[in-house]
Amino acid sequence: MKRAIVLLSGGLDSATCLAQARKDGFECYALSFDYGQRHRCELSASEQTAKHLGAKEFRIFKLDLAQWGGSALTDDAIDVPDHSDSGIPITYVPARNMVFLSLATAWGEVLGAHDIYIGVNSVDYSGYPDCRKPFIESFAETARLGTCAVDENWKWNIHTPLQALSKAEIIKLGISLGVDYSMTTSCYNPDKAGRSCGKCDSCFLRHRGFVEAGVADPTLYSDGVTFP
Ligand code: ZN
Q1: Domain annotation covers residue 55
Q2: Does residue 84 sit within a domain?
Q3: How far is the CA of 67 from the centre of ligand 1 (A)?
C-alpha cells in the first residue's frame, strides 16, 4: 500500500484532506505541529481526527515558532482580530506552510512516502500567500532538488484536493467521506475550555461554510456567541 504524509491541523480542511487521502488508497501518516500556537486544543482535535479516520500513525512534531512571534497566532502581544476581508491578515504565521512541508518531506523520505496532502485552499481562504498554487508547485520542485528524489529520479506529489473548493463544498465532500466535524476545531482564539470565539476569520469562514452547505454547524462556541 502506498504511503502518504497528511498535514493535520485539527481543523476542518485538513480532516477532509485526510479522509480524501484514505479514499485515494493511501496508508496515511498524519503529522501535526506543536509550534507554539495559542489555539492548542487543535492538537487534541488532530489526534482524535487521525484515529477516527484510520491514520496508520499520528505524530506531533515540536518546534517553537513563537520564539520570534510576528503573528497573532503565536505572539501573545498581538490580539486575534475579528473577521475582515482585506489584505494578508495578522493571523498569517510567517512561512508556516514552507516549514511544515519541509518537515513533511523529511519524514516522507524516512518512510518512503512521496505523496503529501495539505489542505490549502484558494477560495474561502484568508489571503495567506503560502496557501496559493504557485507556492505549492514551486515547493514540489524545490523538494525534488533538495532530497534524494533528484538522484533517484522520482518526484514529490503534493496533493491539494481542496485548492479549488469553497468551504461549503469541502464540508459536503468531508461528510460524504465520513468526517465527523464535531471533532475538529478551527478557531484562532478559543476560550480556556476550547470553545470557539465565533468572531475570528476562521470561525467566520467555517460557520458560513456550514450554512451554505445546509449542514448544522457542530462547532462548540463560547457562551453568548450569535451569528447574524
Ligand atoms: Zn474564532
Answers
A1: yes
A2: yes
A3: 23
Q: What is the span of the domain harbouring residue 142?
A: 3-213
On whether residue 196 sits in a domain, the answer given is: yes
Mean pLDDT of 85-109: 85
CA 39 to ligand 1 centroid distance, Å: 10
Distance in Å, CA 76 to ligand 1 centroid? 16
The 10s digit of each residue's pLDDT in 174-211 is 999 999 999 999 998 899 888 999 998 889 999 999 99
What distance in angstroms lies between residue 20's CA and the mean position of ligand 1's atoms?
26
Q: How far is the CA of 4 from the centre of ligand 1 (A)?
A: 30
Residue 16 CB neighbour total at 10 angstroms? 30
Residue 58 domain flag: yes
Q: How many Å apart are CA 175 and CA 85, to the nearest integer? A: 28
**What pTM did the predictor assign?**
0.92
Return the pLDDT at 84. Answer: 67
Residue 55 Cα distances to 16, 39, 111, 116, 143, angstroms: 13, 23, 14, 14, 24
Q: How far is the CA of 172 from the centre of ligand 1 (A)?
A: 21
Number of structural domains, the chain? 1
Q: What is the distance in A from the centroid of ligand 1 to the CA of 189?
A: 5
CATH code of the domain covering residue 115? 3.40.50.620
Q: Tell me, in angstroms, the distance from the centre of ligand 1 to residue 118's CA.
A: 21
Residues 6+ apart with CB under 8 A from 71: 65, 78, 90, 91, 92, 93, 94
Residue 66: per-residue pLDDT: 80
Residue 96 CA, ligand 1 centroid: distance in Å: 19
